[in-house]
Structure formats: C-alpha cells, structure tokens
Amino acid sequence: MYVHINDGEPFLGEVDELPDPSSQYVVFKNPRQRDGKDLRYLLSEVTSIILPWWRINYIEVMPSGEEEDVFTPFRD
To answer: Collapsing DSSP states into helix, strand and coil, what is residue 12?
Structure first.
C-alpha cells in the first residue's frame, strides 16, 4: 500500500487486511520509502508503525502477486 500522509512523502507499508474506517489508527508493517530504503524519520530497527487516521490523506491499494498472475495478459 502507498500511504500518503499530511505534509510528508508517501511511503510503502504492508497490512494484514484492509483498514477499518471506523478505527482510530492503522498499523503498517515494514514501512519504507518508495524505492525500498528505510524512512529517514524512523530508526532502522522499526518493523511496524501506528498512524492515526487524521494523519493519513489517502491510501493506494496495490494488487497482490496472486492477483497479478491471474490478470496478466499473455502473448506468444
């Protein structure tokens, strides 16, 4: 998922399931920059972060590997 936060660069994060809009926060695992590097404002040992909904502008949901395999066109 690409997470777009207020006044910050978007980052990549993983979740077990889609976040519930009625929750107060969202837990992201393995947060990293879009190029895969560590986020500069987090320690390198951090494996998960908790962000309150009010800090998040929007979240882009990317397809999983299984979905890509099913819908990938194939030509000879």
So the answer is: strand
Report the length, in residues, of the chain.
76
CATH 2.30.30 fits 2-71, yes or no: yes
33 Cβ partners below 8 Å, 6+ apart? 9, 11, 12, 39
- Domain map of the chain by residue range? 2-71
Rounded CA separation 70/13 (Å): 23
- Show Cβ contacts of residue 40 under 8 Å, excluding neighbours closer than 6 positions: none
pLDDT tens-digit map of 23-53? 999 999 999 998 989 999 999 899 999 999 9
What CA–CA distance (Å, rounded) separates 45 from 72? 36
Check pLDDT > 90 for residue 67: no
What is the structure's pLDDT at 76? 53
